[in-house]
Structures are given as C-alpha cells and as structure tokens.
Amino acid sequence: MAFLEINNVSKIFGRSTVAVEDFDLQVEHGELVSFLGPSGCGKTTTLRMVAGFETPSTGEIRVKGEDITYRPPNQRNVGMVFQAYALFPNMSVGDNIGFGLKIAKKPLEEIKQRVEEMLELIHMKGYGDRYPYQLSGGQQQRVALARALAISPELLLLDEPLSALDAKIRVSLRQEIRAIQQQLGITAIYVTHDQEEALSMSDRVVVMLDGHIEQVGPPFEIYNFPKTEFVAQFVGTLNTLNALVHDPASGILVVDGQNIQASHALDGLRSGDSAMVSIRPERLSFVTDERKANVLICTVENITFLGSIVRILLKLEDQTFYMDTFNNPYLELKKIGDQVEVTFSTEAVLVLNQRVVA
Amino acid sequence: MTETGGSLSGRAQRRALFSRRNNGGYRRGSSPIAWIILILGLLYFFLPLISVFEFSLKMIKDTYSFEAYRVAFTDPRFFLNFGYSVLWALLTIILSLLLVVPTAYWVHLSMPRLRPVVEFITLMPFVVPAVVLVFGMIRLYGSPPVVLIGSPILLVAGYVILSLPYMFRAVDTGLRAVDIRTLTEAAQSLGASWGTILAKVIFPNLRVAILSGVFLTFAIVMGEFTFASLLNWRAFGPYMEEIGAMRAYTPQALAVVSFLLTWGSIMLMQLVARGVPGQDQIAGAH
C-alpha cells in the first residue's frame, strides 16, 4: 500500500470539459513527485483534488489507505504552498507560521517554539515580527513553506511555488525546498511547468498532457528514455526525424536515404513502415572526435553560440536537426555550408510511440 | 574639451527638459480656466455652508456667538434624538455587516457570475425613492401575516436597504483588492473552518473597506429623515425638521453639527486607512 494513492481519478468541469482523465498514481512515503506539463494539462486540478479544493468526478484518493476523496480540505492535514504566496497580509510572519497551530489549539508556548523552529529552518530567524509586505517574493514564499510545514502535515503540496520569482532565486529556493523536504522526510507533490525544476528536484516526474499521464518515472528515465513524442519534446531539446523501417529485427531505419541503427529490435513495426526517431542534440558529435555505430553525412546550416554550449543546425537531404557541443575557446568551429560527418551510438536512437501532438 | 562640451550640452539638455517640464507644469497647474473652475466649484460647495454657519452665529442681535449651539446642546431632546439615531446607526451597521460581508464574500468566492446581479440589487435605493420604499414596507408589514409596524426592526431594515449601495460597494472593492480565493484556500489547508476564515482572515483583511462602509452608513443614518418620520421613531433627522419648524437659528446650528459629523466620519476613514499594515486603499478607490 502506497502512502498516497490516486486511483483512476477524473475531473469533468461543467458538462463536458475533461480536466483530468483516469489519473492513476501511487506515491511512496518521503517521495517528492512532480507533476510536469504545459498549461491546461490538468496538473493543478489534480493537486487541488488531493488538497480537497476540487472533488473528483470519478475515482478515489487515499492517504495511508484511508479514503479522503470527499473529506473537506480543513480536515486533511495537508500543507499547501501557493504560487501567489497567500500569506495573510494582516498577520506578522510569526502569526502566519503559527496560524495552523492556533487553529489546532496548541498551547501558546508550543506555538512559539514551533514558529522559532520553522524560522530557523527557512533561515529567517528574527523575521517573526515583520509583515508580508515588508518581505521580498523569495522570503514570502519561504514563510509560506514554513507555514505549511508548521502543522506537520502528512502531505506537502506545492502549486508552482517558484513561478513568480526571478531566475536566480528560483534556483536557490528549489534547492532549499528539496533539502527541507528530504530533511523532514515529508511526502510532497510539486506542480510545475518548468522541466528544469521538475528534473532537478524530484524523485519521480509525472509528465501530463490533456488531462492524462504521458509518462511517470525518475528524472533520468524521463529525460533519457521518453516513451512518447510529447515527453521527448517537452522535456529538454529534442531532434525528431521521420524515418522508414528497413530491418526491424536489427533495428535499422533509413533517414533521408542514410541508414541508422537503434540498440533494439523495432517490435510491432514492419519493413517499410514509417517511424519517428528522436535523438538528443547532446548525444551527437563530429566523427573527428570519435566514430560511433551511426554516422550521418550532413551540411552545416547554422551555428548559434549559447554561452557554455554551441548549437549547430545540420541538414540532411530534407530534414534538419540540432547538435550541441560544449563551448571550447580553442575549438575550431565549422563554417556554414561545410559538409560534416556526425556520429552517435545506437542507444541514442529512440523510436517513439506514434502519438500525434497538436 | 569634447567631453566638457558634451557635458555642457548634456546639462543644457537636462535644463531644457527641466524647463519644459516646469513650463508644462506651470501651464497645466496655473491655467486661468482651471483656477476659475476650481474657485467656482469651491464657492458652490462652501458658500451655502458658510452662509448657514454664519447665520447660525447670529442668534444674538448684532453680534456673532455660539448661542444657537448652546441652545441646541442644552435641549434634552437633542441628546435623546441624537442617542436614538446613534442606536439605529449601530444596529444598522451590525445588520449590514452580517448581511453584506458574507454575501459579498460568497459571491466573490463561489458565484462571481452573480456579482452584477447582486450589485444591481444593492443599487435599488438609488432608483426607488425612500418614501416609496417606506410606504411599501408599511403596506407589506402593516397587516398579517407579518406585522412589524411599531417594531424598530422595520426602521433598521429600511436603513440597511438605504445603506446597501455604500456598504456593498465598500466591501466589494475591498474583496477585489485581496486574493480572497487563495487566502481562503490557504486558511482551509491549515485547518480553519468557515467561521474562523471569516473572522480571522477575511474580516481583518477587509478592515479598511468595512470601516469605510461603516462610517458611510453611520453618516447616512444620522441624517436620515423619511424612514424615521414616517415610521414614527425618534431620530436626529425628524428632530431637526421639528426644530426647524419652530426656531430660526438652532436648526442651522444642528445642520452644521450634522455636516461636521459626516466630515468627521470621512476623516476617520482616511485615518484608519493609513494605520493598517499592507492596506493603503479605502473603499471606492484603488
């Protein structure tokens, strides 16, 4: 029995707007699971159903085996951090953090001690008497986190908590949130549309599209072995190339007249079938560096300098794709129009499920 | 040399810009037409008040004195009627708050589509004259099954209706300035019940807006005449009318007092708005 079970949950707004469909997920105790997907994919609706702010149209939600599907949000013992901080403007930082404990009628001394503990946890000791409007966005979100954690919730829900913050604070705060979550061993669900955030913080990532789960897995698996074209495209930069199956048993395909080989047999495909092949730009290199199993001859179309990375656009007969190389000041860059040989391993070739993405 | 020249040129440009801004400001701020309009407006507003005040000081012939005020304040009926009005105002405020705040909160939270409907209903006192309202109430509650004639409930209920546009708009503006939904959900996730959310989160964050509505309601009820007179209840408005029929100077003094009361309420609104952490807006003005 998993700590949190979301069993076949669907949510339909109005008569026919399907926000979430057959969502099935088990979360273990102490795990941080991210819901990742574009706007409108149902990730926040799912989180809100776990929090109790929305009622599922079908399915059930269980925590430690107990059915909480229809339990009001104030009886779920779930801490929630919102995108807009949601600190009570009329209360000081200390009062905000102690709010849930006051509701639970904890002794005053215990509340005071817990508030101090929480302030220390978020590195904001001495800020207890300040008001939310006297804090920066990052500080407000840390207080919101402390407030959610102060009640010792069974589950911590974070709804795009870093979206309103600037890039630098986002990075430092996501590390802080992850460290605190691991330190307290609390089970957490983190909603985000930022793939970097999801990949860097989570034990597992749930990639969602149009109300359903596309893929669930650890960040490494999601990034390196996407199961659908959407996951492959949404998570990281990806080259997708149209190919024809040549020899399915040997995993050989033809891309613009040149053969490439996958590391496995192409189950379910026959010779002459069309297929979608994906290759991450960073898995490619020039033959001059090292020759791997696959080699494609192509022409340099464009070169973009991105700081630590140089992105090169290459053209086959009809299709183009990107190759990323680390920036090296002593590297002799190719010129536009140069004919080059690009190499990659058979493992770098991913043959995707044929899901059409709008 | 070039640098100095550039610097001078830059300074000259800044001076020119500053001068243009100032000239522009001078033209805008000191336009004779604007001044004339302002003076006319001030005269229109203050001249009657000054006249009333000046007249109220002339009770003793050939000298200015506060005799009319002394007479007004020494009349025991003044305090009796004033006290009644304060009582009606307090009851109206309590009832209005109990009716308007939860309604406006619920509309914002769960039924935002109904907001225009509720707003329209609250504007009814602007459309239906008070005298029509009060006769309607007398007709409706003057005979069984529900007889409320002779009960102050009818008067207070009438005042609640009269103050609805002000109270609702004040609270509505306050609710729009705060992210009510997220604050409510945050409080719920921390274990708060609906009552606690209203008392500890919503009311305090609407303090300025609520106080604006409270002071406006207070000012309206203190000067109201029609309801109290036709429902035959003691109040400051009918008292002023009664005195006005008998005396010349005391009613003017009472009018000035009534006006000061309204101004005092508005000043209190401003003062309260300044003292609330995180809230720098009062009802009706973002």
Characterize the structure shown.
The complex is a heterodimer of chains A (358) and B (286). In chain A, 24% of the residues lie in helices and 34% in strands. Chain A contains eight helices and 20 strands. Chain A has helices spanning 43-51, 93-103, 108-121, 137-150, 167-184, 195-201, 219-224, 229-234, and strands at 4-13, 17-27, 32-36, 58-63, 66-67, 78-81, 155-159, 187-192, 204-209, 212-217, 239-247, 252-255, 258-261, 274-279, 285-286, 294-305, 309-315, 320-326, 339-344, 350-351. The longest helix of chain A has 18 residues, at 167-184. Chain A is elongated, with a radius of gyration of 25 Å. Mean pLDDT of chain B is 81; it is low at 1-10, 17-26 and 280-286. The longest helix of chain B has 35 residues, at 76-110. Helices cover 79% and strands 0% of the residues of chain B. The interface between A and B is medium-sized, with 32 and 23 residues.
Task: Provide a brief overview of the structure.
Chain A has helices spanning 43-51, 93-103, 108-121, 137-150, 167-184, 195-201, 219-224, 229-234, and strands at 4-13, 17-27, 32-36, 58-63, 66-67, 78-81, 155-159, 187-192, 204-209, 212-217, 239-247, 252-255, 258-261, 274-279, 285-286, 294-305, 309-315, 320-326, 339-344, 350-351. With 358 residues, chain A is of the alpha+beta class. Chain B starts with a helix and ends in a 12-residue tail after the last helix.
